[in-house]
Design a protein that fits this description.
Helices cover about 70% and strands about 0% of the residues. By secondary structure, it is mainly alpha-helical.
């Protein structure tokens, strides 16, 4: 008898919580300030941080900015290495080992610069292919 009473109490409690849950869901679903009547763009804009970039691709996108900075760094290092190789070449004093090392430094700096420029061209090609409407389009993830 005690067992039947506990089952009845559990049944009443579960139906009461179920009814309250259904009431809660219906009140929230009918609320005009809840997110059910919002667009995907509203969700993306609310999830974006304060200092987060709006666009990833395009002329002012994050990927373009990163590739430009990397190209600048690689170019600066390459120019410095060319100057260093030139100084080593001038200071070598005719020693064949030092001359060869200086020429290799200059050669590797030039090869590094050419590879950096080619990588920059490939990155820009890929970034432009993600921009809707071609190269003149307004790309980005701002939905």
């Amino acid at each position: 008898m005690e067992r039947a009473r506990m089952k009845r109490t559990q049944l009443i409690q579960s139906s009461l919580f179920g009814a309250l849950g259904a009431l809660f869901v219906s009140v929230i679903a009918s609320s005009s300030t809840f997110a059910f009547n919002r667009s995907i763009g509203d969700g993306a804009n609310s999830a974006r941080g304060v200092d987060q970039a709006v666009t990833l691709f395009g002329a002012s996108g994050v990927f373009t900015t990163i590739s430009n900075v990397m190209l600048f760094v690689v170019g600066a290092v390459s120019v410095v290495m060319m100057i260093y190789g030139g100084l080593r070449y001038v200071i070598s004093g005719g020693n064949t080992a030092n001359v060869a090392a200086a020429k290799n430094t200059i050669l590797y700096a030039v090869v590094g610069l050419v590879i950096a420029i080619m990588a920059y061209a490939i990155i820009n090609f890929v970034i432009e292919s993600f921009v809707p409407g071609g190269a003149g389009g307004v790309g980005g993830t701002n939905v």
